[in-house]
What we know:
Helices cover 7% and strands 44% of the residues. By secondary structure, the protein is mainly beta. The strands form 5 sheets. Strands 1, 3, 15, 16 and 18 form a 5-stranded antiparallel β-sheet that branches. A 4-stranded antiparallel β-sheet has the order 2-17-11-14, with no helix packed on it. Strands 5-4-8-9 form a 4-stranded antiparallel β-sheet, with no helix packed on it. It starts with a strand and ends with a strand. The mean pLDDT is 92.
Amino acid sequence: xxxxxxxxxxxxxxxxxxxISVKDSSRIALxxxxxxxxxxxxxxxxxxxxxxxxxxxxxxxxxxxxxxMYDDSDIISFLEEYFNGEAMPFSLKVSHTMSxxxxxxxxxxxxDFMNTSEILGFMKSYTNNTHNNKEFIAENIPNxxxxxxxxxxxxxxxxxxxxxxxxxxxxxxxxxxxxxxxVDTGSLINIQPNKPKYLAINTDSIRNIxxxxxxxxxxxxxxxxxxxxxxxxxxx
Length: 236
């Protein structure tokens, strides 16, 4: 038996006009899915900068990133477009050998990465009191995914699935499939398992099914209105 479910939210619930009876030996698997890589990694993120030299300290000027999906080149391009050809008090580049951002800061300026610091791997604030441009290498590897490293697909009628907690303890779960996104942001993720994993069903009469997408920490994923679809197969 094949069941196709689709919607435009990370949590979808469907009802059946007539309950579906299943045997104790019945199993269910995810045999296909399509999900847009549409969840944002920048949400109300800001950076601020100001003149800061021996003569005076200016007011902070705040740069706000529009909410969206950014990779390292998007971040760099946004800052270049923000200054629109004007002399940039600071700029960013990436060292691919170190996998870190580098801040190029002009003399007499300060930069505070505010709530964007963790994403870029920098500490909060930097000041250049020299007479030359100064480079600061980020202390940490960037967290561009905003902590979303693996996607879990939940199915409410799944029974024998287990996931580990942050304490290393395995607990019962309703996860039917998990994956790491391997496409560019904004692209369609097509899932076609070569060997679907058939799991036990926790009821003998299916009246409804709820599908849900979370990250590895069970935090909801906001698809921003993009459509998601699932194909489920029940075998006896």
